[in-house]
Amino acid sequence: MPLRIVVLAKPVPDPAAAAERLGPDGRLDRAASPAVINGNDEYTLEAALKLADSMGAEVTLLSMAPANGVETMRKGLAMGAHRGVLVTDPAFAGSDAWSTTQVLAAALRGLEFDLVLAGFDTSDGVGGVVGAGIATLLKLPLMSSAAKIEPDEAAGTVRVRRISPTGFDVLEAPMPAVIVGTQLLGEPRYPSLKGIMAARSKEVVTRSLADLELDAGAVGGAAARTKVTGTQKPP
Q1: Which of 215, 209, 213, 199 shows the shortest CA–CA distance to 61?
Q2: Is the dihedral of CA 113, 182, 16, 188 positive or negative?
């Protein structure tokens, strides 16, 4: 059985487009600019695709987004991911990092995987806590600040070279495990024309609140533990 990797790929407002806007409730107006895959998530996707190239790993994208998030996922599929899972429901609107962690962890419980890869943080929220939160909820080993990922299928372990205050550390953990990556994993590849064409026919499965067996009170703005009370431009 090939190594099974799930890459968290969050659609975020395109940093190259118009400035992000907040609504009167403090929520990001996601309709104000086109969405792209979060930049740091592309680095972890690249690491997963390298493992697909070298050892035949199967790569699944997992996103929590509005229904049109499937179009954003197409770039990751064009880069080489094999399939996608889009978790979408109006009840998820207004979710903060904690609510998002609950939803993604529930979605992962319904998937078979050896590794979950998460970007260091996201450009819209800059929280950097979802990967660690998922590892906590699923009771899995967590390795963060990864610069290199080396799974050993025969041993059922994964070795990670991670950035530390003194240089680099080498950690090893049993799989399944959660890994939070950095830009040192490698520059993301560009989709080829062949990949773009193939992405149109790749499977993207959707999951709703009901599919995840979560209580509506545990997700969305009502369950959020953080709230934006104000913003200001950087000096």
Answers
A1: 199
A2: negative
